């Protein structure tokens, strides 16, 4: 079954606890937490104290996406704050530091993950795959919610899925950016296992029905 990870970047921050508590009853699988530093991406969002607060109120796994420069500096603190999956970007540091960051995440008992921006080719994930339990493919430019879906990223998803299959790895492929029921089907057909939905989830008239529709998409059809 396809997993659904609603992005709280599109939640009502005045009522963040309410919106996060609603994810479980709606059938969501993960809570997607976008962390931005204003350097790696041109926006600032939430940090470690908010992740700690979310951990206290949510029974769902926290899918924490670090869109920050040189994440090796902070990965252990985000693990301690309560991340269950912790994603760093290929583009955010040197290969050596990124590998070390993933090892630190793994050593903390958290699922390590790697992400690629739209302009980054699929093969950029290859040095990291053996350490990762998830690869996040961005289908918008990271930094802001509500952007349009980039359908030309589908071959990248398929290629990464092929790498994972060839290596025999237990590694999910997640897609983030402009995901709704229609684009979600396109992603799943390309090889995605996990769909991040922000605006489409929080603006849905019936979020539970939206999640159920994504869950119903056939994987790797």
Automatic annotation (TrEMBL):
This is Ribulose-phosphate 3-epimerase. It catalyses: D-ribulose 5-phosphate = D-xylulose 5-phosphate. One of its GO terms (biological process) is pentose-phosphate shunt. Binds 1 divalent metal cation per subunit. A divalent metal cation binds at residues 32, 34, 65, 176. It comes from the Bacteria. GO terms for cellular component: cytoplasm. The keyword Isomerase applies. The gene is rpe. Gene3D superfamilies: Aldolase class I. Catalyzes the reversible epimerization of D-ribulose 5-phosphate to D-xylulose 5-phosphate. Its cofactor is Co(2+); Zn(2+); Mn(2+); Fe(2+).
